[in-house]
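Sample A.
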Amino acid sequence: MTMRRKVFTFVAICVLAQSSRATDDQAQNLAELSALCQLIKLTDADMSALPKLEPGAGEIATLEVLNMTLAETSWRAKYPNKGASDLGEKAACQGHNNQPQCEAEFKKWAHLNIQATTKETTSPESKIPNGLLTTPSASAARITLAELLAEATALAEEFNTKYKPDLENLEQQIRSDLNKAAYNQEQLKDANGQRCKISATGGNTEVLCALPAVGEALCATVTCVCSKFGDTQDTDVCGTGATPTLTANDATSHKTGYDTIHEVCNKYPAEKLSAELIESKIAAIKSMFKTKGNGGNMAMVLGIIGTTHQCKKVASTACADFTKSSPFKSGETPEAIAWEVNLRKAVAKLKKADEAAIIQKKTNAVLRSYTKRAEAIVKRLLLEKPPASEIHPAVAQQQHCNIHKTNATCTENNCKWDSTTEDKGEHCKPKTETVTTAAGTGDEKDGDKKDECTAVEEKDCDTKKCDWNAEKKQCKVKEGAVVISAVIKAPLLLSFFF
């Protein structure tokens, strides 16, 4: 009894399996369905690896601020160095021939001066002493930096004009092209009867399933390749789950029919988008075109065609007619396949974006090198010894020492290395023992040493070399010391010239 039950069950399974394959055996357009669905699914492709527009690191802005830092004091004095609602542009440009342009330029320089001043305030060592700004070294640095700024600006403008548009909103542009190819609309209206936009009119398959109508969108093509009617053309050419039954031979019925196929195409996996991927899928679908005809008339179709040279309501057939895209007869002009045109637009944009990304990388690298060169120019200038008349010797010494980043160079340049554990870094400081010099000279005077005239009480002040200032309660160098030194050295100086 048990053996009979097992045999009966096995036979029942075989019968059910055979009956379930009956309609699927009619699915002769499965390959075409798969190729078309893969093209449609490109609208959901992974675009994370597409080239992107990289925001600059502000190299031009940095160069402009450095350029302002090197500007002569008289030039910077024309512009405010603190932010305000009124920067004074209207007053400065009053009566100018082109006042709007004058005001715009004034505001630009004012903002740069404010940025330069802010940088100098927060980092006093970055301030170039006024005395250095009038030296030949500063003039040379100013010219070199201006040239760097001009070259950098020209390079950035060339990229912004020629290549930046190829990277801006790239993903949005590509999706628009792919949606146009798939659905004949730049943004999918994901609702029944609205996904596939078919504008062609006509009441027969010969019109709706031939160019130009069938080429409007991939959804129009796949509907022609996979649909059936309830009477003569009643086979499931794309399988039971992907062969819609059209109630009428018109655009509205084709739109509704596509909804069934859309569910199938939507199950395909999303792929990582590239120009090569799109091109390979175009080539795959076009390789399935086949030639068929009768009575001297030939047709180039996708899918199954009957004994005629047109896609008609014929039993066990369903096809899309692309004959007009190949002008094989004398005097004919090829008919464009709209979905192919839109796919190739996306390909062209992707290739241009790849090229622009390479240029972008090179441009940014050059701009960074310009910025480093400009910063090096300013650092070299700060190494120059400020004139003796510089009124900020402590700041100048701080600037001088901050340039050196190793223990060896720090100590060689009369600075102190303020670290016992590191030989490199930001540890170079001015020596605490400083020498007071007479105004207008760089020479050390008798009685000028700090330890000889720094007594805090009058009884300790050396009256031979120093004077006690009762009002300030300070021990100071005698005023006569400078005069005496000058008198003593005058004959020596004259003997040098004569």
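Sample B, a different protein:
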Amino acid sequence: MVHLYQILRTLALTNEDLATFGDQEPMTDFPAVSPLPVPTLGIFKAQIREMYPRLEPALVDRFANVQSLRYENLVQRQEKHSQAAMNRSCRSGKYCFALGGDASLLPRAEGASVSFRVMDPSQGLLRLPARFECPICFEVKEFQKPYDWSIHVLRDVWPFTCTFPNCSEPKSFKRKADWVRHEVRRHRQPEWWACSYTDCSYKAFRKDTFTDHLVHKYKMLMPNVRMPEASSSEEKSETQRKMDKERLWEMVKQCRHSYEQITQQEQCQFCGVTYGNWKALLGHVGSHLEHLALSVLEQVN
């Protein structure tokens, strides 16, 4: 049977493939993960506090709950697969490792000059590209290169969880892009519009909402400019409508702010490393979340 710790070791070798943001340095300096006694919620909390002593208590509780659920799901999958193997009803068929199955090598992609070695149930190595039974989800998948295998394993453990302590929807995500979208849109607000009229504190996070504010409250006029009102029996001239439209969009442009414009340093909640760019910070934090999620594989045999 494939030991899941071999997967964790394998993924460490392909960590550089997992960098989502171009400016990010690969994360390699992670805290050590020690095998636990029978994992419980309390045990997971203690482990996370040991790995990341800087984490807020609310995040320790959240991540421990997620780890506990991950562990339970992995154990349930293994038990279900073991039962299927005993009954010789595993859906993986000839690929079922528990029934003596093996991987099937695939032809290299056109133009590829090398093959890759990742894992083998008996020797710890497997040549890619290949088709084999994933020892986490127990489904037969095809993998062309280590990156494909790494991404599949990460998605099996849903590694990304919201890192904002007061989040009312602290979901977990299997894809980094979905987690980034949640954190940015719900908590970081990548862009917003602040009304520049005197004594107006209106702020919107959608361009169309802010445009409606200008149209309905200020009649599409720029500050300190009063346009003559059209007669009820007359329509504004095309030229005047064009001028109004240009003024409106110019003000919308001037009132826009973006998170990228903020240059203040922000600390990683896990290790304290600071970043002045939120994209780099999220890439860094995402690596911690991946490492934490993968550490649960150490506990499942």
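Observation for Sample B: Residues 4-168+274-299 form one domain.
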